[in-house]
Amino acid sequence: MEEGYQNRTAFIKGAKDIAKEVKRQASKKVGRSVDRVTDEYSKRSYSRFEEDDDDYPTQGSQDGGYYRGDSQAANDDEGGHSDSTEGHDEDDEIYEGEYQGIPRAESGKGSLAGGPGSVRAGAQEFSDTGVSEAERRKDQEELAQQYETILQECGHGKFQWTLYFVLGLALMADGVEIFVVGFVLPSAEKDMCLSEPNKSMLGLIVYFGMMVGAFLWGALADRIGRRQSLLISLSINSIFSFFSSFVQGYSTFLFCRLLSGVGIGGSIPIVFSYYSEFLSQEKRGEHLSWLCMFWMIGGIYASAMAWAIIPHYGWSFQMGSAYQFHSWRVFVLVCAFPSVAAIAALSAMPESPRFYLENGKHDEGWMILKQVHDTNMRAKGHPEKVFSVTTIKTVKQMDELTDIGTDTPMWQRYRMKIISLSQQIRNNILACFNPEYKRRTFMLMAVWFTMSFSYYGLTVWFPDMIKYIQKQEYDSRTKTFTKERVEHVTFNFTLENQVHLEGHYFNDKFLNLKMKSMVFEDSVFEECYFEDITSIHTIFRNCTFVASLFYNTDLFKYRFVNCKLLNSTFLHNKEGCMLDFSDDFNNAYMIYFVNFLGTLAVLPGNIVSALLMDKIGRLRMLAGSSVISCVSCFFLMFGNSESGMIALLCLFGGISIASWNALDVITVELYPSDKRTTAFGFLNALCKLAAVLGISIFQSFVGITKAVPIIFAAGALAAGSFLATKLPETRGQVLQ
């Protein structure tokens, strides 16, 4: 009997191999008609064994959803397969759980040990080239209901809190990235001699990078997994953040910050989707809102590090005049630490089980859910509780495979895989605009755009207005000298905030001094000597220099506007821009302190939104916070002082954060798992585009008028709050 059983098994394996080959060859000629050919061939192959199937012993059994193999038959003469896996081959994706007592998926493959019905199911598998969208939708609905029940059994405990802090580091890295360029720009513009257009580009480049990153990594996370996509994106962010702290040229620094932004752009869409798939419905809104606090922590971390590092000019070194490593570069390096820490911590965490189940990987999903259950039960003092789930619904997969022959070159295989992946991503993005999701997608696009346009526009406009107020106050103290004549005088002290008109300087010496905000206009310098000069915001306009000598100065050509240089000489000019914080020490501290207060001010809004999100609902939180933020915009008209603008900045940030938290939660809950990060990434990319537009438009009105930015911000928030009420409420619903 044993010999007959082995012969029978060998014949079945051979028949299946032949059936596959028939299918592959026929599919190239007759397309979908291969189903009938394969089905007929499979039935003929198995029919001879159906009548006497009970005469042969089986080595495995199915009971209660579990599928276990005989441990004594774990290794056979053929190379290590248990008897219960006889009839499988490598292309059948051997069920791993049979060695571990893991429950088999409802939609899993049949086996010989299951009897004739299972044999027919196995044969039918070869004849099906795909499943309809309706079948997938039904499977997804059943999975959503069962998954919520499983999460209830797993409970909320140590595992979720561990994942909370791990993903919080990734979100913290995103918050840091937003502030890095803004904090280093005042120093970098001097270190790299940046013009005004270059400064603007450096300020916006991180948003362009994050826009690309959100779109790219969000789409990939639905195809290759949340954890893997997040690890790759954070790695790119860490690598190019590290490089950007050492590169010297403006172009290479800009390129590194762009790619750093591309990397961190995937953080927000993946983090919220990833964490939501470990939370039950009664915990989801609250704990996703608590997670938002790490973005605030990232801002506080960046402000504190900038405060502690950048003003200390002594924290630097240089190798000649070609390579300089100033303190702001140390700050850029330190800001990469949260991303590196997130990578290290995330490496110890599992993939989302929901992602596995949506992609037909029953065993992997079941094992992770069991890990969640056991971790929480042990932490609560109930290690004896057993994970009672035996079978989890998995979603049937569409036939998206491409036949790649073994003789195909490797580079072409990778090319075909990339093309296939790109097509899948494209289809997933277009699916967000299907009739079922089109209305909510357009509504969310409008809400994301209006909120981002107003929020980022105002948060950048506030510091610019504070700088403008400071400049006005500084300009009010400017001293003006007209038609002065100075002869045989040595200047060896700092010259600051002065305007000299129609002056005449004869045989004067300017030695070892600093010129800050100095203007010389329509003046004559005759036989003057300039040595070791450092200048900031200094310019000579319509001046004449006769027989003058410039030695070791940074008075470059662009500082001389319509000037005449007669018999004058420049020797050993300083290279690059000289960086000196001694004059800007108080201003630097003020910038970091203002941003620190603005970031800290969102703490009350975070707490309120977390406590009320599951009580009053997402829509009320979103619309209510947007309306209050809209009203608060009109108080900006009264911000005529530095302290008044700081207070208004804190007020606006504290109110608007609740609407951001609600928008993050509702975006996660409005899309099914196989489209969640794709949709979130697309909307977050649109958010960054709106941020670029808002910043560019609002900055153009600094010093001109307050009315236009206020009207733009209030109008956008009002429109966003109105559209938010048209979205469906997701409180109390299972995660799709």
From TrEMBL:
Keyword Nucleotide-binding in record: no
GO cellular component, one term: synaptic vesicle membrane
Pfam family, one: LD_SV2
GO biological process, one term: neurotransmitter transport
Transmembrane residue ranges: 161-188, 200-218, 230-251, 257-276, 288-310, 330-349, 442-462, 589-612, 619-639, 645-667, 679-701, 707-725
SUPFAM superfamilies: MFS general substrate transporter (SSF103473), Pentapeptide repeat-like (SSF141571)
Biased composition (Basic and acidic residues): 32-49, 78-87
All residue ranges annotated as the Major facilitator superfamily (MFS) profile domain in the record: 163-731
One GO MF term attached to the UniProt entry: transmembrane transporter activity
Keywords: Cell projection, Cytoplasmic vesicle, Glycoprotein, Membrane, Neurotransmitter transport, Phosphoprotein, Synapse, Transmembrane, Transmembrane helix, Transport
Protein topology in the membrane: Multi-pass membrane protein
Location relative to the cell: Cytoplasmic vesicle, Secretory vesicle, Synaptic vesicle membrane; Presynapse
Alphabetical list of InterPro entries matching this protein: LD_SV2 (IPR055415), MFS (IPR011701), MFS_dom (IPR020846), MFS_sugar_transport-like (IPR005828), MFS_trans_sf (IPR036259), Sugar_transporter_CS (IPR005829), SV2 (IPR022308)
Chain segments carrying region Disordered: 22-91, 103-139
Function according to Swiss-Prot or TrEMBL: Plays a role in the control of regulated secretion in neural and endocrine cells, enhancing selectively low-frequency neurotransmission. Positively regulates vesicle fusion by maintaining the readily releasable pool of secretory vesicles.
Quaternary assembly: Interacts with SYT1/synaptotagmin-1 in a calcium-dependent manner. Binds the adapter protein complex AP-2.
Family that this chain belongs to: Belongs to the major facilitator superfamily.
NCBIfam families in UniProt: synapt_SV2
Protein name: Synaptic vesicle glycoprotein 2A
Organism: Gasterosteus aculeatus aculeatus
